[in-house]
Design brief:
mainly beta; 10 strands; binds protoporphyrin IX containing FE
């Protein structure tokens, strides 16, 4: 089983034609130097590891695991899938977050850049305020560096950057 999982996550299955435009995301990406900001909170640093892998299906599976820069304690966690509308550069990111948020984002991939924003969002009836209204993300690859900028809108704050981070390929 371990062998099979290793095989599945190391991208040895042939890449499905439909997701070739997203091939540049595949692999493990890590940063100790994430920067967090929002008008309503104190700026913070964090670390994060991203994994994008595929098993031969027309989707990419991902996990995003963040930790506290000093204590290394696990923080934000998210898992999901990315799909492409066949024959187009239109993408969908389907994600579930440890905070109780589930989301479909849509957008486009152009070269080694993918931009998405919330289409539909589901949250807990007992979630902690403020409620999120919209998330937007940009992933961009430059050689062995992957950058992410994430912005969000809450019930109290208009669309503002929350996270900026550059990952190195592991
Ligand atoms: C605060 C959402 C990712 C760390 C917040 C807040 C929201 C939020 C709504 C509260 C803002 C306010 O009070 O006005 C999200 C969403 C994320 C995300 C939707 C991903 C899609 C992350 C990641 C980290 C992080 C990856 C990395 C560790 C924090 C921290 C705070 C915060 C430290 C401040 C908490 C506090 O002061 O109580 N986030 N976040 N977030 N977020 Fe995120």
């Amino acid at each position: 089983l371990l062998y099979q999982r290793k095989k599945m996550t190391s991208g040895e299955a042939p890449l499905h034609d439909l997701i070739k435009p997203l091939g540049w995301l595949l692999g493990t990406w890590r940063s100790e130097e994430g920067f967090g900001h929002y008008p309503t909170i104190k700026d913070f640093k964090y670390g994060e590891e991203l994994q994008f892998f595929q098993v031969g299906q027309p989707n990419i599976q991902f996990s995003f695991y963040a930790w506290h820069a000093d204590t290394k304690k696990p923080m934000h966690r998210e898992i999901g899938f990315i799909r492409i509308k066949p024959g187009t550069n239109q993408v969908a990111l389907i994600g579930a977050q440890n905070t109780g948020l589930a989301e479909v984002e849509e957008g486009h991939v152009e070269g080694q850049e993918m931009k998405t924003e919330t289409q539909t969002l589901a949250r807990l009836s007992f979630g902690t305020p403020p409620a999120i209204r919209k998330i937007s993300r940009i992933f961009k690859r430059n050689g062995d560096v992957l950058e992410q900028v994430l912005s969000m809108e809450t019930e109290n704050t208009p669309m503002t950057t929350h996270l900026k981070i550059s990952y190195q390929k592991v």
